[in-house]
Specification:
The chain is built from eight helices and no strands. With about 150 residues, it is mainly alpha-helical. This is Huntingtin-interacting protein 1-related protein.
């Protein structure tokens, strides 16, 4: 089932609350609502388009919350998010963000850089070991064709 206009608006509202530039803690409840909406058809594409339109280079708090949201989506979201993040344009976005935050000397910027590198390692791990889900649960039937009977 595809995302309706109401669900897109709801996702956009939750996204603006989660990725606010204010120095507030990461809102996990709204992040879970976003992750649940990604399980709809085209939810992963809508999620990635909405996150790319955020000012990730303008505000360090937004960038930190983006890392948290992306990690939550990779872990609990639809497997399609992981597949889309393995494509070169998405990885180039994360590399560009990590290069941008590498030149800042603030302590939070260092944390953002490390978190982005962790996300890149997580994505490359899942490229190499496709039988692990985003939550690191082994699904051996995904890669290997085993007769389980």
């Amino acid at each position: 089932m595809e995302l309706t206009h109401k669900e897109r608006t709801e996702m956009k509202k939750h996204m603006s609350k989660v990725l606010s530039g204010k120095e507030k803690p990461f809102d996990g409840l709204r992040a879970r609502a976003i992750v649940l909406l990604t399980h709809r058809t085209n939810g992963a594409e809508v999620f990635l388009k909405m996150t790319q339109s955020q000012p990730l280079r303008m505000n360090r708090y937004t960038a930190w919350k983006y890392c948290n949201l992306l990690h939550t989506a990779l872990r609990y979201g639809t497997p399609q998010i992981l597949e889309l993040m393995q494509q070169p344009p998405q990885q180039q976005l994360l590399y560009a963000l990590s290069n941008y935050w590498a030149y800042h000397t603030d302590a939070l910027c260092g944390c953002i850089l490390e978190y982005l590198q962790l996300l890149l390692h997580k994505i490359s791990f899942h490229q190499n070991y496709a039988f692990f889900t985003g939550a690191l649960e082994a699904d051996i039937t995904k890669e290997w064709d085993l007769d389980l009977w």
